[in-house]
């Protein structure tokens, strides 16, 4: 019931061009060409302009899930409603078990009725894993 997507830390900033010079041999600064404006961002957060939200406690999360289910269910086709109802409880329990490790994100509009995107780091991982409710997503043709 949850889609799992691996995020990746990427460097964002001006492009450094290597012209083949050897600064140490030529008496130049070894940091020459390094961009002080470069920052590390998670590709998924940056690409989709996700906005991080404060962490939820258990009560807040359960309240959010009840409202999310109530709002989303009528928007689904009848056949998808049954599958959604069968699987959402398991997904909610899975997320509740990981609640302390989750980061919460919403879309750029920060709309109250929008779906949350969840992120966490698997054991030993340096890149975050994002979790999505598939029924809360719209397919967009690119």
From TrEMBL:
Q: Which InterPro entries match?
A: Mss4-like_sf, Mss4/transl-control_tumour, TCTP, Translation_control_tumour_CS, Translational_control_tumour_p
Q: Which residues form the TCTP domain?
A: 1-142
Q: Where in the cell is it found?
A: Cytoplasm
**Coiled-coil zones:** none
Check the record and name the SUPFAM superfamilies matching this protein: Mss4-like
Pfam families of this UniProt entry?
Answer: TCTP
Q: Output a single Gene Ontology CC term carried by this record.
A: cytoplasm
One annotated GO molecular function is:
calcium ion binding
Which keywords accompany this UniProt record? Cytoplasm
GO BP annotation list: developmental process
Task: Please state which protein family the record places this protein in.
Answer: Belongs to the TCTP family.
Please state what the protein is called: TCTP domain-containing protein
Traced from the root, the source organism's taxonomic lineage reads: Eukaryota, Viridiplantae, Streptophyta, Embryophyta, Tracheophyta
């Amino acid at each position: 019931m949850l889609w799992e997507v691996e995020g990746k830390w990427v460097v964002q900033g001006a492009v450094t061009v290597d012209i083949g010079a050897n600064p140490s041999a030529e008496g130049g600064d070894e940091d020459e060409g390094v961009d002080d404006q470069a920052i590390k961002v998670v590709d998924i957060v940056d690409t989709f302009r996700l906005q991080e939200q404060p962490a939820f406690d258990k009560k807040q999360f359960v309240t959010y899930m009840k409202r999310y289910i109530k709002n989303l269910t009528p928007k689904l086709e009848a056949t998808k409603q049954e599958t959604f109802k069968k699987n959402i409880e398991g997904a909610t329990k899975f997320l509740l078990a990981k609640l302390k490790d989750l980061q919460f994100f919403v879309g750029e509009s920060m709309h109250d009725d929008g779906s949350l995107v969840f992120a966490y780091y698997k054991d030993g991982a340096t890149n975050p894993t994002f979790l999505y409710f598939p029924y809360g997503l719209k397919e967009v043709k690119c």
